[in-house]
Design the sequence.
DNA sequence: TCAATATTGTTCATGGAGGCACAAAGATGA
DNA sequence: TCATCTTTGTGCCTCCATGAACAATATTGA
């Protein structure tokens, strides 16, 4: 069963919204309303939600609790993912403490750096190891996911050491560098500078219009 | 002239690669090679690059310097953008110091927070003001772009104050919250948690296959 | 000079995502 | 009970991005 990437992204949004609605005690909601709150067309919402089976009630809408459970199950993982964070610069540390990355569905089990002032210490309650020890530590701790927050020049080298462990299956990279990985390793990149450039490009274009 | 969003994103990648090639003294490169280095099909590269006019030489390839200039011009801005950063938490501070956001094409002119310990001080060489003073300060400093790094609950309120200035035209948001803005304000969102969830979802799916 | 080779620019087809519109199904009220 | 109204689920159409194939152009070597 293959699901489109934009759909997954929206499912995460639905999940957040539903969690909030649940807290507010809301019982039922329509695709129309969901769409308005998230800036989507109602038909888009319905298509996304019906993708995993009929879950709404025609003439009524979606039962908030039931839909929340449903989306939760779609996004749920069979196990708790164990994550390693590579590069404890300011961005890495910010992510370590970030609410979004505190969840019971995954946890950051180790961080890695090359700075001797950091290696061996606990950072935000997580032990810090040397990047060179990644193959060993990742295997020991059964870490399958890597969050990469190192400078661009160091990115490929760090990735090579990580995949050398043989246990890493996914990488979330914040480095603005193209990464080469074995075909069975999945890479997602968040390119902050590129996002800003895109924004600026379209702003420039729209300047002439208005 | 309208350009597709994925194309812009790749142009940024081309630009980075070309800058590097230039430093290495490389004179000429083919679409094939560019594609291999960035993980793209050669035909894709050619289509992107020819979109803004014929710039390569058939039978030869692309002249690195010339192509670099060309892409640079496409991505260039008529003026230096003035940016404000809202929310000086750890993520905000990390971005302030991040290399990717140091450029001669834009600059962060002010930061905003509600914390009295920060307001009035200089942070990373940038003056910090209270969020409530945004309308005034943004207008004074002619800031057209906002980078939003506040908690989700505070996001909409902060955006409302920012757009109230009347000068803000674009927002790069790191908050995991849907934002309502006037139609003439452009919003790009970077949703870190959603990216991670996507990665985990596809890893889960591929577990059964292998 | 001309054949062989290399590489771009472009056309065309394929697939996929979004959105409209309508049928199906449940609710409501007389 | 039945007509009307609401809201979902889905078929269909359109648009856009990708990728393959080919024609056009430049280089090279004999």
Sequence:
């Amino acid at each position: 069963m293959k699901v489109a990437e934009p759909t997954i992204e929206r499912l995460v949004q639905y999940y957040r919204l539903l969690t909030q609605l649940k807290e507010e005690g809301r019982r039922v909601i329509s695709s129309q309303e969901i769409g308005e709150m998230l800036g989507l067309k109602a038909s888009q919402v319905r298509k996304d939600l019906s993708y995993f089976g009929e879950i709404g009630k025609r003439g009524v809408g979606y039962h908030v609790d039931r839909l929340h459970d449903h989306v939760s199950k779609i996004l749920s993982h069979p196990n708790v993912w164990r994550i390693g964070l590579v590069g404890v610069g300011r961005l890495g540390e910010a992510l370590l403490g970030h609410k979004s990355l505190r969840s019971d569905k995954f946890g950051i089990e180790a961080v890695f750096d090359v700075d001797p002032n950091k290696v061996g210490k606990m950072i935000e309650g997580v032990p810090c190891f040397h990047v060179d020890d990644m193959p060993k530590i990742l295997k020991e701790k059964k870490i399958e996911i890597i969050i990469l927050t190192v400078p661009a020049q160091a990115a490929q080298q760090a990735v090579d050491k990580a995949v050398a462990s043989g246990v890493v299956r996914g990488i979330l990279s914040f480095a603005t560098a193209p990464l080469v990985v074995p075909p069975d390793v999945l890479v997602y990149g968040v390119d902050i500078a590129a996002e800003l450039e895109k924004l600026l490009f379209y702003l420039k274009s729209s300047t002439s219009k208005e």
